[in-house]
């Protein structure tokens, strides 16, 4: 845990969140500033600043993170309608919380990019 990281504090239960599920390694909760009708964040409990800082030893955790995304989509009924997943890596890509997280979003039309 990093003391000044809001996601670490959420994972530790120090800051409240609308948690959808959690286990020993990952946590899924609703984004407090959603940009879609459904907007969930899936995070590892382990503090990893961004995907660029993930190590080979994090391989299993990264797989579990993506399976957590699938679980969110399944449990919220997003699979048929479709959903978008985004991992912003670095300030230039729009990352504002420097703890690896996957955005899971659905319920509106998307354009590219």
Question: In words, what does this structure look like?
Answer:
- A hairpin with a 3-residue loop joins strand 1 and strand 2.
- The protein has one domain (6-106): 2-Layer Sandwich (HIT family, subunit A), CATH 3.30.428.10.
- Helices cover 20% and strands 21% of the residues.
- The protein has a five-stranded antiparallel beta sheet with strand order 1-2-3-5-4, covered by helices on one side.
- The protein has two helices and five strands; from the N terminus they run αβββαββ.
Q: What spatial order of strands do you see in the largest sheet?
A: 1-2-3-5-4
* Mean pLDDT metric: 96
CATH-derived topology: HIT family, subunit A
The biggest beta sheet reads:
5 strands, antiparallel
Tell me how many strands there are.
Answer: 5
Number of helices: 2
Q: Note the beta-strand portion.
A: 15-25%
CATH architectural grouping: 2-Layer Sandwich
Straight-line N-to-C gap: 33 Å
Show unreliable segments: none
Per CATH, the class reads: Alpha Beta
Output the structural class.
alpha+beta
Chart the SSEs and their pairings.
Layout: H1 6-11, E1 19-22, E2 26-30, E3 38-44, H2 59-75, E4 84-86, E5 102-106
Antiparallel strand pairs: 1-2, 2-3, 3-5, 4-5
Features:
HIT family, subunit A; 21% strand; 2 helices; 113 residues; globular; 5 strands; alpha+beta; 20% helix
């Amino acid at each position: 845990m990093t003391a000044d990281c809001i996601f670490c504090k959420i994972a530790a239960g120090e800051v409240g969140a609308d948690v959808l599920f959690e286990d020993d390694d990952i946590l899924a909760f609703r984004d407090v500033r959603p940009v879609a009708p459904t907007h969930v964040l899936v995070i590892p409990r382990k503090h990893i600043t961004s995907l660029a800082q993930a190590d080979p030893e994090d391989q299993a955790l990264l797989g579990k993170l993506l399976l957590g995304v699938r679980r969110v989509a399944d449990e919220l009924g997003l699979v048929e309608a479709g959903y978008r997943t985004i991992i912003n890596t670095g300030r230039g890509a729009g990352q504002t919380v420097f703890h690896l997280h996957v955005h899971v979003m659905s319920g509106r039309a998307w354009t590219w990019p």
